[in-house]
Specification:
The complex is a heterodimer of chains A (239) and B (278). By secondary structure, chain A is mainly alpha-helical. Chain A contains 7 helices and no strands. The chains are: A mainly alpha (239), B alpha/beta (278). Bound molecules: adenosine-5'-triphosphate and magnesium ion. The site of adenosine-5'-triphosphate has 11 residues of chain B, from helix 1.
């Protein structure tokens, strides 16, 4: 049963349908969150206030989906009393949607900062840093959606590894902002506000790591939270 | 979940069982079974089963109908002796003593290893007599007051005393199903057993009576070692610390109940507890 997920069908076909339903709802929520992230980032970088408004308004939809999936999972737990892989499946997805919802909130924060950042005029370097961090987390999110679909542990591990690059980029960007603020105290205000957006992107990376950890737990039953990357690879390779 | 599965159908025939996976043995065993085969005539019902019943723990035996749970349980206090065509091979020990050994008296063994059946089966006698019968024939009481005391404590341990204390002289068969089952548990406890075997003790009971029995099992494990056969996965998960999964007369997997129900190692166990074809 290691590193693969190939359960046979349930005797109760209805149960299979219910689980399949939850999965497609989670994918739908993930796709919506991805749209939010993409648009939130575009709004911020292009100073597109109209788009920013849309993102802010759409956050309700993300929240509504979370509630809906939450209810579906609760009802499966109450009615079907899932065990083994089924239990891990429901638990992992219930946690996944919490992180999706948070990613939605971070995307909304990007949109909210649009006006502020626009007024302060974003510099070419700031644009590049945010663009590059943004592209990285969008790629992580895209791959996470694939992992939910395929439940491929190797790919989940890849996504977890990519977060390191996001963190490095974040660190470098902060250093850049700090040294610029030292040189030109006038930039302190705009630097701080840009740093919040960078922080939002960095947090999104963390949420995506969480999700991939839940998915690894789903597939092989190992709780891999709070473990170093190196140890993690070792754990997944043993047996 | 059809499309997340690369729809590989796993008929049970494709899956090999060579030796149980998991942890069938422990350091603190009350009973140790090794390489047990059981035959009904030419028909082999149990194949090379080895595991331990850990002291003061509840072990659940689960598996599809006909996989040999009851057969195996009945070996543990030689109830199978009563079936002429039944033949048991291998080693079964209670505290290191062979229970099929020459020195072992099956009647005494059954006092040490008591059994509670699926259908409550009180004797057609008074509530008092139902509980007093065992201690009497085993000479556990020297006089009436000692016997009274055994009856009362046993009924108390079975959580029944308060409900029946005013009608001890009335027939046990007049009690409700759940009360009858607790009466049978009291009867089993009355002879101070070391091990209690239960074969689907709650299958004929409503959820409340079931919860009472489960709570009782939980308390009983402080003093006794318990093996329980159940068809309810939730019940196995609730009452036991160890779970053994049987399939076609073989022990497939044994381990901590928590592990078995969240992350079983064998595919057959997974399929069974999650209600899949397999
Ligand atoms: N008295 C008997 N004589 C002959 N064969 C028997 C006898 N009792 C059981 N068997 C056979 O032994 C096998 C195991 O039966 P057993 O009753 O132990 O299964 P079980 O796991 O307890 O099933 P269930 O869950 O339905 O109670 C079955 O194939 C059954 O037909
Ligand atoms: Mg049976």
């Amino acid at each position: 049963m290691e590193n693969e997920y190939q359960p046979t069908q349930h005797i109760s076909q209805q149960f299979d349908v219910e689980l399949e339903n939850i999965k497609s709802q989670v994918l739908k929520m993930g796709a919506l969150v991805k749209k939010q992230l993409r648009d939130g980032l575009t709004a911020l970088l292009d100073g597109d206030e109209k788009l920013a408004k849309k993102v802010i308004k759409r956050d309700n939809k993300v929240n509504a989906l979370e509630v809906k999936i939450d209810e579906a999972c609760t009802s499966i737990i109450a009615i079907r009393q899932p065990a083994a892989t089924d239990l891990r499946f429901v638990l992992s997805l219930i946690k996944t949607i919490t992180d999706f919802e948070r990613i939605g909130d971070e995307a909304e924060k990007l949109a909210v900062s649009t006006r502020n950042v626009k007024e302060k005029h974003i510099s070419e370097q700031e644009y590049q840093y945010l663009r590059s961090m943004g592209d990285m987390v969008i790629e992580m999110l895209t791959q996470t959606l694939e992992v939910i679909e395929t439940l491929n542990v190797d790919q989940a591990l890849e996504v977890i590894k990519q977060d390191q690059a996001v963190n490095d980029e974040y660190e470098e960007f902060l250093n850049f902002l700090v040294s610029r603020m030292k040189d030109k105290p006038k930039t302190i205000k705009s630097g701080l506000s840009i740093s919040w957006s960078a922080r939002a992107l960095e947090r999104i990376g963390d949420h995506l790591v969480n999700i991939n950890e839940y998915l690894i737990y789903l597939v092989n039953g190992k709780d891999v939270r709070h473990i170093d990357l190196e140890d993690l690879e070792e754990i997944l390779n043993e047996e | 979940m059809v499309d997340i599965i690369s729809a590989k159908s796993l008929g049970s025939n494709d899956i090999k069982i060579d030796g149980a996976v998991g942890e069938p043995f422990c350091d603190d065993a009350k009973m140790s079974m090794r390489n047990v085969d059981v035959f009904y005539g030419d028909n082999q019902a149990i194949h090379d089963v080895s595991f331990d019943l850990e002291k003061n723990q509840v072990t659940a035996l689960i598996g599809p109908s006909g996989c040999g749970k009851s057969t195996f349980l009945r070996c543990l206090n030689r109830m199978n002796d009563l079936i002429p065509i039944c033949n048991v091979k291998g080693s079964l020990q209670l505290d290191g003593e062979e229970i099929y050994g020459k020195q072992m008296d099956p009647v005494l063994l059954r006092a040490r290893v008591g059994m509670v059946f699926q259908k409550p089966n009180p004797f057609p006698k008074s509530i008092y007599e139902n509980v007093a019968y065992g201690p009497k024939i085993h000479g556990l009481a020297t006089d009436k007051s000692e016997l009274d005391e055994i009856v009362e404590t046993s009924l108390r341990k079975a959580g029944l005393f308060n409900e029946v204390k005013d009608r001890l002289d009335q027939p046990g068969t007049g009690l409700s199903g759940g009360q009858q089952q607790r009466l049978c548990i009291a009867r089993t406890i009355a002879v101070s057993p070391e091990v209690i075997l239960m074969d689907e003790p709650a299958s004929a009971l409503d959820p409340i009576a079931t919860a009472v029995i489960e709570e009782l099992i939980h308390e009983l494990k402080e003093k006794y070692t318990i093996a329980i056969v159940t068809h309810s996965m939730q019940q196995a998960a609730r009452v036991s610390q160890k779970t053994a999964y049987f399939h076609l007369g073989k022990l497939v997997e044994m381990g901590d109940t928590k592990q078995i129900f969240t992350n079983p190692r064998h595919e057959l166990t997974e399929n069974y507890i999650s209600g899949r074809f397999g």
